[in-house]
TrEMBL record:
One of its GO terms (cellular component) is sperm midpiece. Keywords: Signal. One of its GO terms (biological process) is olfactory behavior. It comes from Echeneis naucrates. Residues 1-18 form the signal peptide. This is Cilia and flagella associated protein 69. Residues 13-607 form the Cilia- and flagella-associated protein 69 ARM repeats domain. SUPFAM superfamilies: ARM repeat.
Amino acid sequence: HSMFGSLFLFSVLAGLQPTSPGYKLQLLEFTDLAQTLLLSMATVENQPAIKLQLLQTLQILSGSSDMNCALILKAQGAETICLHMNEPDPSGQVLFCSSEILWNLLERGRKDEVMAQLSSMECVVSLKEAFFHLLINGFQHSDLQLRNDLLVITTLIAENPSSLLIESLFAKQLVVIVKFPEFKTQHPVVRNLKLSYCNEDLKMKKLLMNLLVVMSKDFAALQLYKEEQVMLALLTLMMPPAASSGRRSGSRHWSSVQQEELQLQALATLATIAPLMIDDYMSFQGNIRLLLLLEWCIGQDAYFGQGHSFHGTGGRGTKKAHMRHCIRVLRSVASCGDELVNQNLCDQGIIGPSLSGILMQMEANTDEEDEVTLEMKSDIQLIISTLCETDMHRKELFGSEGVEMTIHFLKKGSENFYSGLGHNKLVLSTVDCVWSCIVGCYTTEDYFLAKEGVFLLFDLLLSSPRCVHGVILATLLELCDNPNALSHILSWRASGGQTAPGLLLQLWRQEEEELGVSRTQHGEIKDPKRPILSHHQQEEDTDLSFPANVPSAAVLEISENQRSKIYCIFCKLGFQDLPGLSTKDYVTLSIVKRYLDFKVGEVWSEISKELSLDGVRPVSPDEEALSTICKIAEDTARKVKAEQNSILEQQEKSNISEEELTYTEIKSHWKQQELTVKSWENYVSRTSNYEILKVFIF
């Protein structure tokens, strides 16, 4: 020590300054110290004090440098630390330091590499031993935190295929803990387990339910859930306090705030797991339990808890969060398409006054709409649409109340479509309600028409963005099968006087502009060989290397734009005596009228091209027939072009005739003015000149 003191005194007298700790750590990055310390752990297994110092040093190095973390991982550091963290430790600090090092590697190193090193049976068993050691023997707050940290690492491992957790029986034991303390069992894992019901125990319970969601991707995990009746545990846990008084002793130890958070976490877990375990869900009366919870939410004026946590976004201090997650579970279950589940929901009266009434009650009681409320409204509409889509009787149950609901939301329009709160989803779900719950049932269709539903759809079509046009046009097309709908369509007028046919033709032109279809200044066909060809099709048509075995671009193009829907609507309306069309509209209408002929021509043109690319030459009769068909399509385009020219010429003549008539009226007006001036001048001359007056008299 005296020697080091002398050297320090000499350095100070010589004017030297000690280096900073940050500089020292930076220099350590260029050495192999981290790897050396890690590899030397095998030589100090019987020296706990030195081993602890090594781990503490690695903890400092890994927590201060990304490069050190990379060096540790290069030496299989995550696996080494995990395998040695359960060795005998008189100090009780080895497990803590090991966990901290693993967390540093996850935060500062490559997460995928850490998970690859930990994804082995030996590491999973080591984590299992450490977790259960802390679960049974840990009572201090730091022990409980460390236990939860290990559970998070286990969850990260389970994000990869969770077979390791199942094969090691770790998953089975964790599933048993999920049900504790609500369900008492004689399983050795929980026989002597006691919870303190502190916030760390609450976090563990929530982490375990989150682990259920992560492992649910594995079919073997679902079988495990079935054996351990996880569905019953979740359905019981999510029930409201008044309905869960029959739970076994233990649940009362959770505070009201903690119980609420567990309730919400259980609902969030059910939204993922219930569709995957639909048989268990039905066996334990999942639909009835959820509807009871929904009824409880509606019946509560305010909720006493404040522990909504993450799952209570937008509804803290109220029952809104419970409603939100309850509706989410119902939506996910109904979307499975299981007829038994959906029929059970309908038997509970969910289509009639239940969901529609809740929706309108929410609409009436909402002063200012927020993201959560809008999500619930759109989810309710999606549930009803899913249930009614293929069943005529359910559409009848939707009835007048359901029609009134859709009319109400259609009237709101799309002004807030891009607000970011979810109005866009609400608009789409409302139109989906019309499609799934009204269209196809004449009773509801007629009531919808009587409430001017078609007018509202056209108003929405006029004001909504292009991304919504497809579903609205498809809905209008289906409504056209009702003979009473055609008169409503032809009677619609926009605020500027635009008619429905005029709006449809305007949308047609917008679609062609988006598709890059070649047109003249007045909307005429520019190239008769490609009358309706889009820009994308033109590129494929000119690409001789384009493979001939791909699907037909002419057919696929139909589903990518709205021209086919507009054409079909006009087929229902007819192409004659349409109100409120301009010359430009008639020019466009001549193309719409021949849309199917042009499409057929495109398909035959593709067939001809594919034969050429494959080196196949048809026999003379087939070649002649193919040539004739292609020529007919081109001749049709030329006839349409001639018809368009005739329309424009007629309009030009009409304009000239109107102009001549206008000039004639102007000339007549000026002639009248001249006669009036001349008459006035004569009058003045008679009154001012006596000689002129005598001539006029005699």
